[in-house]
Amino acid sequence: MAEEVVLQKDDSKIEKSKNSIEEEKKENEKGDTFEEAERVSILKDKRFIFALSLMLGILLLLLLVLFFISSKNRDPFEVFKPKEQQQTQQQIDTESMKFEMQKIDDMIQKANALYLRGEREEALNIYEQISIYSEALSNYNLGVSQMEQKNYSLAMESFKKSIASNENQTISAINAAVCALYLNDKAKFDYYIDLAYVYLSNEGDSKLFSYYLSLINYYKGLYPEALQMLQQTDNENYIDDAKYLSAKIYAKMGLNTRAIENLESQGAYQSSLPIGLLYARIGQYDKARLALSEAMKTNRDYNQSAAALNLVDIKTARYSDMLNRLKRSFGGKENYILDFYKIRVRLNSELSDINIAQNNFSKDFMSNLKEQADLLFYFAPYQVFDVKQASMYINKANVSNFIQDNESSKSLLENSKSLSSVNIKLANIISLAINGKLRIANDEFKKLSDSYSQHSILHFNLGLSYAQLRYYDLAFKHFSSSYHLDPKNYEAGAFAVLSATLSGKDSTRLLNEINENINLDKEFKDKIYQYIMLFAKGDHVAMIPFLDEPDANAFSMMLKIITAKNNELNNELRDRIYTLKEKFSDDLLVNILFFNENNYNLNIKEYAQNAQLYFKNINYDYDKLSNGPTVLRDNYISIMRISGLLNQEREKIKERLAIKDESAQGLSATLAYMDIYAGLFEEAYGLYNILIEDYNMKDSDTYFLAAVSAVGSNNPNAAIALLELSKLEDDSNQDARLALALLYHEVQNYEPAIYQYGQVKDGFLSSFFSFDLRK
What we know:
This protein is mainly α. It is 68% helix and 3% strand. It folds into three domains: 189 residues, no CATH class; 196 residues, Tetratricopeptide repeat domain (Serine Threonine Protein Phosphatase 5, Tetratricopeptide repeat, Alpha Horseshoe); 231 residues, Serine Threonine Protein Phosphatase 5, Tetratricopeptide repeat.
């Protein structure tokens, strides 16, 4: 979009020229008879009459042309749009125009004086110069008018005539070059901008020499030189123009803050749109939203401002705002406004850049409900019908921390031999889950629950395995089934409420039902389940009394840690984490929490150095790491990334893969995940294909991560197909929904893009995907 800085004509100067002739006539009429006779003789001179008529005619034409020149049209420039030739500006100087009018006036007065003194030949020569000069001035302003009408071909011809007349050559050449830019005629652009530079020497005495030179340098791409000249522009009528052009140059040079400062300090241009775009460019989205909303009040800027605001909404996870705007203002024309800016989907830079990862790293591993819930699910025990019987089949010390009786099912076990058999099967599957084969356990739980679909315990364990894999929607389904099959399975009910909150479901009715049953249950004694529901609803203060309850297992200890954290009881938090470390010193996640607590107040560089020392010599349970709860994998890799140990750990896993066939699936999945953060996207993509095709890992998470590696490998079509499969496996997978929306947006398939945006919850931001404007 062009920015036209159109100078206004000064009619007073032209009027003054006419008036001065009339005044001189009246003054001379007071002279003697000889002078009067001489005046009559001059007027009868045909050459004089012709010259004067031509002069007045040209001046009249000039007045008519200038009358139709519109006022300044201050269009903002498009800092987001990547095309290099999009930024053009029509430059005409008001002071220069006034000077031209004064020059004509002086020439006319000089010619009149010569005629009065009888020096007719000299006077007629000046009148001829006036005629030629006025014609040039007329061509110049006619070109300006034609530029405003966007008739750039005719405008260029007008400026060419102005140049040929040897007047206004510098500024006419600059404007002719601008016309060539609009017409995409590089040869003519180069010709006229070079011509302007040649003629610039004629402007040595002009107050606007520096400004003209800055324009030439700007269009030649000599931005530092242009800025230097702009800083020397001290003409008060052109200060704002200099700031505006400086802002354009700073934006082109990537100095966005300086560009904003110049735009905000000038008042001649309506600059809400470029200011909003610049704030968006530097990631200050709140300021961008305010500026763009203001720009939408201008009809000229409405569509572009709305299109930019849509992208800001996507960047800030305000999807409903974006969709409502599309429906309200562009119903039926959504494709048009989404197409205004083309986007390019990319992976977040911090995935494979250790410096960015360190800068964005949060040492708060319990900053929100989801992170805290993941820790709870990690330590939550599975349920069995009989702990004593089940413990014989579970290869793990401290079995009481990983399994517990379902009290209400004991009588069922006593009356059914088949349930005893189920208990043994449960024990074997739980052993898989807690020993690093969670995905296999999840599959086995599904098979067993299909055979015994009416047993609460089976649904609970399946729900817990889904929760540990972060499939909260499926977890809610089976936790709620477990509770409704056994209304005294309060743990299932409490976890159903928590899973519902995590998946965005309304659990009010279920919560009321559970509390009502608890109030009617005279044997109810384990209050931890009530505290879990308080945690799910964010009632942290009401959880404080739980800190005085005895520790039953690792799960209750973690709930107390979360309670202390949410109530800012920092000393209590520290003591509880230390206690957890004493009892579970070999657990990798416990070690991560312990290390983080001891190093929380250090700067990121010191934190990373200490992480290298602490984790370098710890013996990990790689099986549990590779195929255990997702929270363990993510926190472990997060620490490895910022500490610089990621590649070292990748090599260790490769060594284990070479010698340990039974764990190949889990180790390969972990290696593929690490490859994403190491920036080895093609390696990751190849591994995920093996996991999907050879190991039949066709869950939503695997499909999604394969799509991440596909985008990193510049294969967006494969990514779209994988994301569709991910969504089919888990309809609530917000990461897959948002990634699909962005990729459909990128390929300009706007209808499914709009639909997918509508399925993403406000506030959800992807840890993997982002976008830029396409160049």
